[in-house]
Every structure is written in C-alpha cells, then in structure tokens.
User: Fold GDSL-type esterase/lipase family protein from Pricia mediterranea.
Amino acid sequence: MKYRLIVLFFSAILSVNAQDALRFETEVEAIQKKYDTVYGTSDETIVFTGSSSIRMWHDVQDRFPGHQVVNTGFGGSEASDLSHYLYDLILRFHPEKVFIYEGDNDIFAGKKPKRVRNDIRQIINSIHRNDSTVQIVLIAAKPSIARWNLKGKYKRLNQKLESLANAHPLVEYADVWHPMLDGSKVKQDIFIEDGLHMNQKGYQIWYDVLKSFVN
Assistant:
C-alpha cells in the first residue's frame, strides 16, 4: 500500500509537470517551423536553448558566423519544460554542442537549487543517451536587478551547476555571473527597462564569456 501511494504521488507530479509544459506548445511549434526552412541538416550545429535570456539573444547567429547556430530558447521556461521538449528543441537538430540556460525562472518560482540541478542532470543524461559525443555547456544563472533579492539561491545553484560540469568530461560550466557584477553589486546598465532581460551591453558580456566555448 505504501509503495502504491509513492508511485501515485510521483505519477501526479509528472502529470502536473507535463501539463505545465503544454503552455509552451505553440511557441515550440513556431520554433520548429522557423528552422524547418533554414536549418541545414548536413552542417554541424550548435544549439542554444533555455529561457528568455536565450530567446531574446537575437543576434547569436551573427555573433558566431562560422557556425550554424540554432536558437531554441522559449521565454518563461524552467528546466523541467526543456526536459519535456528535449527532442523538439535539441535532439532533432543532431547538435555537436548544446548551450543550456535554465534555472533563472526555476529559482524565481521557488524551486530549490538541488531540484534544479537534478532536472538539468536529467537533461544531460537524456542528451548523452541519444548521442554520447555531444558537448554541453551549462550557462550560469545570471544576476539581475529584478531578482537580486534571490542572489544567495542563484549562487548556490551556480555552485551545483559547476560541480555537475566538473563531474563529466563532456560538460562545461560558463560563468556569466561574476562578469555581470560591479564589485558586490550587479551592473546597472546592462539590462532593459524590466531589470531582468539584457540589452546589447549584457549580451556582449555573454559573448565574451561564451566565445571560447564555441570556438
């Protein structure tokens, strides 16, 4: 009886997560249609995926002109959402390298860093079950003006992401947290009006950090 209750409990959790992820169905379909027309199946591909900080990086392809870059970011997403759409947003492109930005919205939604780490570990394992040669880069959760009150939790999450990367030879950790700081405070001039999403100065910082991982 106890075992049955445990199974029902976790089944309910999975069902809720799947229903939550369905809110992105239209956006994910639009991403697929976009790349159906421009994606070259014979070219080596780098996928950038995750939440709105990726989705709003509109010139990411221009930043890395020597590579075929696919941007499958979907705004408001959490790691569990990316896990749900893993084939649609990552695997179908047969990438050689994947950059993942998740955790920002998870922490804001009240999830504990350990749970986010476990969700991202599941994503990593699923990617490597499909293709064990894929290189994965975990982009650190960024600091922001709007969510600076949660900085302690973001720092703990980043420590867990870095440890996760260190434990796997094909996973790397890209620290965008510290370059976005001015001393002990977050830089004020690298965000748009909402204090959460970045302007071009913010994305320049990301480019400076990530270019060595791309090349």
Remarks:
- Residues 2-21 form the longest helix (20 residues).
